[in-house]
Design brief:
The complex is a heterodimer of chains A (220) and B (219). By secondary structure, chain A is mainly α. Chain A is built from 8 helices and no strands. Chain B is built from 9 helices and no strands. The model of chain B has no long low-confidence stretch (mean pLDDT 89). Classes of the chains: A mainly alpha (220), B mainly alpha (219). At the A-B interface, helix 3, helix 6, helix 7 and helix 8 of A face helix 3, helix 4, helix 7 and helix 9 of B. Chain B: Keywords: Amino-acid transport, Cell membrane, Membrane, Transmembrane, Transmembrane helix, Transport.
């Protein structure tokens, strides 16, 4: 008289903790990549704008490739490339590097748009008031350009948070991979996916609405 | 660096990869067609549909835009499985991508519709056109022109997103690459070639769209 053996067990409170930790890892890798990617993206965007020819052919081409190849392919490619050049790395580091470059590629475009949004006459005026090139960038281009493209930057950041789900292919235990594992064990896909979806939604929806509001109030 | 690159097995498999690339294009194009139709309906419903339909349309658009595409694919894969509905990998990818495309395109279309002034509708109606004639002959052609560029971008996104098919067992370009790569352990080489194929597909789409735009919007 034995109980029928089951490989599956129901959804428990512990599993919510497991999902929560995974969500934390999603946030961690996104935050790291967005920060590093934005810093590089600003630099790339500025150099694309400042030196048309040289930067366009070098940085421009590379960033273009990163925008035209699926992120998942980039992740697998680099994860398998790093050991070749002798850098044995875990999924987090590899994922963060690739996501950062990907973010930088998107941010560079946004930044270039921002610098171009500041009219040439405005910048000439700044220079003829005796500002140096860097002062012009810091006190004229930055505040005006930032306003013009901040909403698109938020859009990039949100898409990076969503795309960070792809780091799961490297075995990084982020939210979607954790849910997949739980689904395999509990056979309750609906609840688990609803939890995961709700987390992304709760993160992304308010931010996108907020940036939309900002955009409206700045353009009017 | 003591790694020997072996490209030969990859090149031997190139015809299969190209074929898989065509499958990728097929899914992307079909999902765009479905996405454009659904996106138009969603955009119209959001602007002037009856209450409950408007809520559904809003929910669809916000869900598609605020969750990862991979989540949406999982939903069509595992999520519908909870209701005993088991789709083939092809359908999972096609429906998932169409759902996503429709959400993003609906927002673009809405922007396009808002950009066409109201007075044109009234002018068309007073010329004796019916409501549907007005939409088909006056409004939609102008909207298409406004959303042409975002639509091209979405098409590129559809191609890139279809690579997620790999994770739900669909053997399009990425899935096929994964399959061969795990058979031969030449992971880097296979994915490098696949990356090039994706790059070429994307460039072809962008150039094609530019040429088409030159013909379509000549005047």
């Amino acid at each position: 008289m034995s109980e029928p053996i089951s490989f599956f067990s129901g959804f428990q409170v512990n599993d919510l903790v497991f999902l929560g930790e995974a969500a934390g890892r999603t946030l961690l890798i996104s935050a790291v990549s967005i920060t590093i990617g934005t810093i590089f993206g600003i630099f790339f965007g500025w150099s694309l704008q400042a030196s048309k020819w040289l930067a366009q052919t070098t940085i421009g081409t590379i960033l273009d490739i990163f925008r035209s190849v699926p992120l998942i392919i980039q992740l697998i490619l680099f994860y398998n490339f790093f050991p070749i050049i002798g850098w044995n790395t875990g999924p987090f580091a590899a994922g963060a590097v690739v996501l950062s470059i990907y973010t930088a590629a998107l941010v560079a475009n946004v930044v270039r748009g921002g610098i171009e949004a500041v009219g040439i006459p405005m910048r000439r005026a700044a220079r003829s008031l005796g500002m140096s090139y860097w002062q012009d960038l810091r006190y004229v281009v930055w505040p005006i350009g930032l306003r013009a493209v901040f909403p698109s930057w938020v859009g990039v950041a949100l898409s990076v948070i969503k795309d960070s789900a792809l780091v799961s292919v490297l075995g990084y235990m982020e939210l979607l991979r954790a849910s997949q594992i739980l689904i395999t064990r509990t056979q309750e896909p609906f609840i688990i996916l609803a939890c995961a979806g709700a987390f992304y939604f709760a993160l992304s929806y308010p931010l996108s609405k907020y940036s939309q509001k900002l955009e409206e109030s700045w353009t009017s | 660096m003591d790694y020997n690159f072996h490209w030969r097995p990859v090149f031997r498999q190139l015809p299969d990869l190209f074929e898989a690339g065509l499958l990728t294009l097929e899914v992307a194009i079909l999902s765009m067609i479905l996405g454009i139709m659904l996106g138009l309906i969603l955009a119209l419903l959001r602007m002037n549909g009856p209450r409950p339909l408007r809520w559904i349309a809003n929910f669809w658009v916000e869900l598609a835009r605020n969750t990862p595409a991979l989540f949406q694919l999982f939903f069509f894969g595992f999520g519908l499985g909870a209701f005993g509905l088991h789709l083939t990998p092809y359908l999972i990818v096609l429906l998932g991508l169409s759902f996503n495309n429709a959400g993003y395109l609906a927002e673009n279309f809405r922007g396009g519709f808002l950009a066409v002034p109201d007075t044109q509708i009234r002018a068309a109606r007073s010329l004796g056109m019916t409501a549907s004639q007005t939409y088909i002959r006056i409004i939609i052609p102008q909207v298409l022109r406004i959303v042409y560029h975002p639509m091209t971008n979405q098409m590129v996104w559809a191609v890139l997103m279809s690579s997620l098919g790999m994770l739900v067992g669909f053997r399009e370009l990425s899935g096929e690459t994964q399959f061969f790569a795990s058979k031969t352990y030449r992971i880097f080489e296979y994915f490098a070639v696949t990356a090039v194929i994706y790059y070429v597909i994307v460039k072809i789409i962008l150039i094609g769209s530019k040429l088409a735009a030159r013909r379509l919007f000549k005047y």
